Amino acid sequence: MSNALDELCETVINCRLCPRLVAWREEVARTKRAAFADEDYWGRPLPGFGDPKAHVLVVGLAPAAHGGNRTGRIFTGDRSGDWLFRAMYHAGFANQSESVHLHDGLRLKDAYVAAAVRCAPPANKPTPQERDNCLPYLARELQLLKQTRIIVCLGSFAWDAVLRTGRMLGYVLSRKPRFGHASEADLGPYVLLGSYHPSQQNTFTGRLTEEMLDAVFSRAAALAGRVS
Going along 137-224, which residue ranges are E strands? Predict the structure, then answer.
């Protein structure tokens, strides 16, 4: 399984399906942000990472232009990731509460992290076609993560992407479940958990608090304990 996941990671990293995203991620990597002017940006698509035996899969929207697109790991080096990994640490899914660069020692236990779209998009807004180009990667991850039974969807975009991926895998629902914070839905063998995305527009405004995010991952841990 690990070899198959490694092969998938290489496929993702070499993907050039979306011309707009290729141009943007590479332009950001060339021009850089002043605070990171001395760093070598990743500037490529980001594969998922974590525990191959994970019961919990966390799905975000897309890499941040100066976060994952810089560091080479989704949610690493940006403020959304600060919130995410702190909550995962509190719930026992991570060995440390922050991740600032690719080789900082972060390890995930019983969790795997991926994104609906694997390249940093302009204005953090992928197009529907760009989303659909990436969905087969998420579908393949679900096929390879054979113990995964809980999917935490960070934001409505990820929620919708996971539902679409489920349809690709043959899990058809008679009614589309509505996204909301702490919402739950069954999708074939999976339980979907919704959470507001830990973006600054949610955390700065108080729409999402640390307690709210901790509660979602506590619920994920409780569900994972039932199936482990």
Answer: 150-154, 184-187, 190-195
